[in-house]
Protein: Glutathione S-transferase
Amino acid sequence: MIDLYTAATPNGHKASIALEELGLPYELHVLDLTKGEQKTPAFLAINPNGRIPAIVDREAGGFAVFESGAVLVYLAEKTGRLMPADAKGRSRVMQWLMFQMGGIGPMMGQANVFFRYFPEKIPAVIERYQGESKRLFRVLDGHLREHEYLAGDYSIADIANWAWVRTHRWSGVDIDDLPHLKRWRDAIRARPAVQRGIERPAPAVDLSRDGEAAAQRFAEDARKLMETGQSLKPGGAA
Structure:
């Protein structure tokens, strides 16, 4: 049994999707970020950085893993699935995983802050992060023109990138001109395990259903949290 400590954010959904895909039994512990539950001593003992997600593997003597990419690698290696065993195959997966961790996540995260949350609208900054997010989307689109998935078979690299790309509307970035990225996004969204994973926990905002009015209310709450040093993301803005 694995304990999953998480919230409805792209990084949080990486872990829940992987657990659902792998069919591993897990217990869901949803942290209320608005109440600072990620900063309690009990959780900091699991993740000293005070961020979600994190897991505790009871079968491994209560072994804790934090950082979403590290969680994905641990689960893949634990089960021998969603990542090839050979050196080249593993490297391909790790390259695209690092692409998300070092590029897609940080750039979209900053786009979210300045496009949705920051009290002052600074066009040059918004354009900078939205533009870089779009550039990275084009990289994905170009690669997916000749590949069904990012690194051979479906893998943790796809899970990591998809969990963020699906929220592109929250970052204010359009992908209508990226047909290969859209094909990949929709194909992964149709997977039953992915559908279960993005409901564990359910997102606070889904722009495809809730619309901009709900998004604005969510963003207002997020701005208030920023003033106290907290952070909040919708996790379901596709």
About this structure: DSSP finds nine helices and four strands in the chain. The domain at 87-191 is CATH 1.20.1050.10 (Glutathione S-transferase Yfyf (Class Pi); Chain A, domain 2). The beta strands are 2-6, 26-30, 54-57, 63-66. Confidence is low (pLDDT under 50) at residues 228-232.
